[in-house]
Design goal:
Radius of gyration: 32 Å
Number of strands: 29
Distance between the termini: 111 Å
Structural class: alpha+beta
Largest sheet: 12 strands, mixed
C-alpha cells in the first residue's frame, strides 16, 4: 500500500512537483500509471496530495522521468526538458489596439540619478532583517570583442534581432531611440551593462502570474505591491519602470534569490523582460513586451516564457552572478546609458552613480551608536570582466557632513535646545495636523496632530548649498528641500533636516497617520508635498491647507532657531541698524524696518566664480531702497575677507547701478543676481563658503 502521509521535509510538495514534471515530459497521468503498472487513481492521489508513492516506486518514477532518485525525494530540481529557454513575444491585441512604448517609462527621465533613487528606494522598501542594513551594489560593465559576442549569444540576440529591427522602423520616439541604439552597437561593437544587486531584501517572491512581488515587477504595470507595513517610499508602482527606461533597448535581465521558497527552491530564479513598441515580423503582429524564459507547461499559459531555475554557468554567461545565497535581486540593464548627457564615459557614469546615491540616501546610510544604518551602497566598474574602477563605498559623511551630523546627533540623543557652539545640533518639534479621512463621516473632526522633528546645525565650510531644510519620511526617504522664507539678514549658514512619519523613529497612531497623509500628497516622482488626486479624494476638505500650514510652521521654526528676528524690536548689530534705518513721514519719529532675504541660490562655475541669486522682501517705503551687496568669504576665525563683484544684474523690479541695487518705492519683493570676480578671491571658490550682506548704501546712488 502506498504511504499516505504527505511529505513536507524537503522542497516542493510531491503532488505539484510531479504534475509539473509530467507536463515537462509531455506525459499524461495515464501514461505514467501504465508504465508503473499502477492504477490511474493511484497516480491521481499522488498528484492531489492524498498520498505519496513508496520509495521503490519513486525510484521507478525517477527512471521513467530520466532523473535520479534524489531529485524525486528532495524535489528541489526539475527533470530535463526538451523545451529550451527562449524569448516569448506577446501577440498583438485581437481588438487592434496598439501601444508604441511603455507609458510608465515616460513618467521619469532615463537619468542615472533618477534610476539610483528609484531602484535603491525599492530595495530599501524590501528590507528583510530590520536589524541589518540593505546592501546595494551597482556594477557598471562594458563589453566588447569576444566578451560581447559571448554575452549576446547567451542572450539569444539573433532571435531578438528581427523584432528589434522591425520595432525600430516606426516614427515614434521609442522607435527612433531603438534605431540609434542598434546602429551604435553595430558600428562600435561595444555594450554597457549596469547590474543592481541588493542583499537582505525579500527577492521576487510569489507565483509566476498571480499576486506577488514577482508578477508585480515582471508581469504588471502600476502594481506597487509594497508589503512593508506602510513604510514604503513608493506607492504608484512606477519606480521599476526606470530600470527599463535606462536601457537603450528596453531590456532587463533578472536573477533573484528568494526569501520564501517557490516550487521548493529559492535560487537562482532567472527571467528577462523586453519592452518594445507594437511591431510586425513577417505576417505576425506583436504587442511589444517579450519575456526570456522556459516555455510554460500549464495549459492556461502553454508556451508563454516563464522564469526558470538557471544553472551556475548560464547565470555567469548572462553576467548575473550574485555573491552568496543571501536573499535579494539582481537587475541587469542591457545597453545602460544616461539620457541627460551628463555622463557619457564610464568614469562619468561611475561618479554620477556614487554622487546620486550619496545625495538621495545619505540619511538612510547614517547610523548612530545604538541604531545601524538602513542602507549600505557601493559602486564598481568593470571592462570585460576586469576591474576598471575599483569598488567605491558611498560615504554619506564625505558628501553631506553637516546633514549627517544633524541626523546622527538625533539618533544618539545628542541634540540641544539652543545653539551655543559650533558643531551642535538643535532640535525642535513642528506640528502637522493630519486631516480626517472622508470615510470617517461628516463629524467636525479637526484631525490628529503629529509632531515632526526639525534638526538644525551650522553648515559645513564646503557646503555649496545651505540654508535649506531637507524633508523626509518613511525609511528616511528624501522628498523635498524647502528654502525657509523671510530669514533675517545676517543669518549664519545652516543645514536642517525635517523628519516626519516613520522617519522620526517613533511609534504611535499619529506616526502612521502622518506617513499615509504625506505619501498621499506626493506625485509619482515623490519630490514634494502638495495637491494630488489621492489627497483630495481620500481626505476631507482642508487637507491642502494643512500642508500649507505645515510648510509655514517649518519656516517659522527655522526662524526661531537661527536667532535673529526680522522685526524692529529684535535689534541686531548697531552698525546694521544704522545702515538700514528708514525715515518715514508722519509724526516725525524715526522707525526701523529691515529688508529680509527670502532665499539665496548659488553655484560655482568652472572658473571658481560664485553665481548668486538673492530674493529680497522689503517693507513699505516712500523713498527708493539703495542697497550695496557685499560678498565675503566666510572663515572659521578672524574677519571675513571681502571679494569683488564681477557683475551685478537687476531684474524687472530693481536695477543695478555702479555697484548698488536700486529698488523703487512700492516694491515689496525683488530679485538680483551677482557673479564674484575670481581674481579677488583669497582662495579658490570651492574651498570657501560665500556670504552675502545687503546693507543700505551710504550716500545713495553715485
Amino acid at each position: 500500500m502506498p504511504d499516505s502521509r504527505p511529505s513536507s521535509a524537503h522542497g516542493e510538495a510531491f503532488g505539484p512537483w510531479l504534475a509539473r514534471q509530467l507536463r515537462r515530459a509531455d506525459m499524461s497521468q495515464a501514461d505514467l500509471a501504465t508504465r508503473l503498472d499502477k492504477t490511474r487513481a493511484a497516480v491521481s492521489a499522488w498528484i492531489t496530495g492524498r498520498a505519496e508513492p513508496r520509495e521503490e516506486t519513486k525510484a521507478r518514477i525517477a527512471e521513467i522521468l530520466g532523473t535520479d532518485l534524489a531529485a524525486v525525494v528532495t524535489r528541489t530540481a526539475d527533470v530535463p526538458s526538451s523545451r529550451p529557454v527562449r524569448w516569448h513575444h506577446r501577440p498583438a491585441h485581437s481588438d487592434g489596439g496598439r501601444e508604441y512604448g511603455n507609458a510608465a517609462a515616460f513618467a521619469f527621465d532615463a537619468d542615472l540619478s533618477v534610476l539610483a533613487r528609484e531602484a535603491t528606494q525599492n530595495s530599501l522598501d524590501e528590507r528583510l532583517d530590520a536589524d541589518v542594513p540593505v546592501r546595494v551594489h551597482y556594477t557598471l560593465h562594458e563589453l566588447d570583442g569576444a566578451h560581447l559576442d559571448a554575452f549576446l549569444a547567451a542572450l539569444h540576440w539573433e532571435d531578438l534581432l528581427p523584432h528589434l529591427e522591425e520595432a525600430s522602423r516606426g516614427g515614434q520616439k521609442v522607435s527612433r531611440s531603438l534605431r540609434s541604439a542598434l546602429d551604435d552597437l553595430a558600428q562600435e561593437r561595444r555594450l554597457r551593462l549596469l547590474r543592481i544587486d541588493d542583499y537582505n531584501a525579500s527577492g521576487l517572491t510569489g507565483p509566476e502570474y498571480s499576486d506577488g512581488r514577482f508578477a508585480a515587477v515582471v508581469r504588471r504595470q502600476l502594481d506597487s505591491h509594497k508589503v512593508t507595513g506602510g513604510r514604503a517610499g513608493g506607492s504608484y508602482g512606477l519606480g521599476k519602470a526606470t530600470l527599463w527606461a535606462t536601457s537603450r533597448f528596453g531590456l532587463v535581465l533578472i536573477n533573484s534569490t528568494l526569501s520564501e521558497p517557490h516550487e521548493g527552491r529559492t535560487a537562482p530564479r532567472v527571467v528577462g523582460r523586453l519592452d518594445l513598441p507594437w511591431h510586425q515580423v513577417g505576417a505576425e503582429a506583436f504587442a511589444g513586451p517579450a519575456w526570456l524564459g522556459e516555455p510554460d507547461t500549464e495549459p492556461e499559459h502553454e508556451g508563454v516564457s516563464r522564469s526558470w531555475w538557471a544553472d551556475e554557468e548560464t547565470v555567469r554567461r548572462l553576467c548575473l552572478e550574485r555573491s552568496g545565497d543571501e536573499p535579494g535581486t539582481s537587475f541587469l540593464i542591457v545597453g545602460a546609458y544616461d539620457a541627460s548627457g551628463d555622463a557619457e564615459s564610464l568614469q562619468d557614469m561611475h561618479e554620477k552613480l556614487v554622487g546620486s546615491l550619496a545625495d538621495g540616501f545619505w540619511a538612510a546610510m547614517t547610523g548612530g551608536r545604538s541604531a545601524a544604518p538602513l542602507l549600505e551602497a557601493r559602486v564598481t566598474t568593470l571592462r570585460n570582466g576586469e576591474v576598471y574602477i575599483p569598488e567605491q563605498r558611498v560615504d554619506p559623511h564625505a558628501y553631506h557632513p553637516a546633514l549627517t551630523r544633524a541626523l546622527q546627533a538625533y539618533l544618539d540623543g545628542d541634540t540641544v535646545d539652543e545653539l551655543t557652539a559650533a558643531g551642535q545640533v538643535v532640535r525642535a518639534d513642528v506640528p502637522l495636523v493630519v486631516s480626517p479621512l472622508k470615510d470617517q463621516g461628516r463629524a467636525r473632526d479637526k484631525g490628529r496632530e503629529h509632531l515632526a522633528v526639525l534638526l538644525l546645525t551650522p553648515a559645513d565650510d564646503n557646503d555649496s548649498q545651505f540654508n535649506r531644510v531637507v524633508c523626509m519620511r518613511g525609511n528616511r526617504m528624501t522628498i523635498t528641500e524647502q528654502r525657509p522664507r523671510d530669514l533675517p539678514l545676517g543669518t549664519p549658514p545652516f543645514q536642517a533636516v525635517l523628519l516626519a512619519g516613520y522617519a522620526t523613529g517613533r511609534g504611535g497612531e499619529d506616526v502612521g497617520l502622518a506617513e499615509a497623509f504625506l505619501r498621499a500628497s506626493e506625485p509619482p516622482e515623490h519630490d514634494r508635498w502638495d495637491r494630488t488626486e489621492e489627497l483630495t479624494t481620500t481626505y476631507q476638505r482642508g487637507a491642502l491647507s494643512r500642508l500649507k500650514e505645515f510648510r509655514a510652521a517649518i519656516d517659522k521654526t527655522v526662524r526661531s532657531l537661527v536667532g535673529r528676528r526680522e522685526i524692529a524690536r529684535s535689534g541686531g548689530p548697531a552698525v546694521l541698524r544704522e545702515l538700514l534705518k528708514l525715515d518715514t513721514a508722519g509724526n516725525g519719529r524715526r522707525t526701523q524696518s529691515f529688508p529680509t532675504v527670502r532665499n539665496v541660490d548659488a553655484r560655482i562655475d568652472e572658473r571658481g566664480a560664485w553665481h548668486v541669486t538673492v530674493h529680497l522682501r522689503l517693507p513699505e517705503a516712500e523713498d527708493p531702497w539703495v542697497l550695496a551687496p557685499v560678498a565675503k568669504f566666510d572663515v572659521r576665525s578672524g574677519g571675513r575677507p571681502t571679494v569683488d563683484w564681477e557683475l551685478l544684474v537687476g531684474s524687472e523690479t530693481c536695477r543695478a547701478e555702479n555697484g548698488v541695487i536700486v529698488i523703487e518705492p512700492g516694491v515689496r519683493a525683488t530679485t538680483f543676481s551677482g557673479v564674484t570676480d575670481p581674481a579677488s578671491h583669497p582662495v579658490r571658490g570651492n574651498y570657501a563658503r560665500l556670504t552675502v550682506d545687503v546693507p543700505k548704501a551710504r550716500g545713495g546712488v553715485a
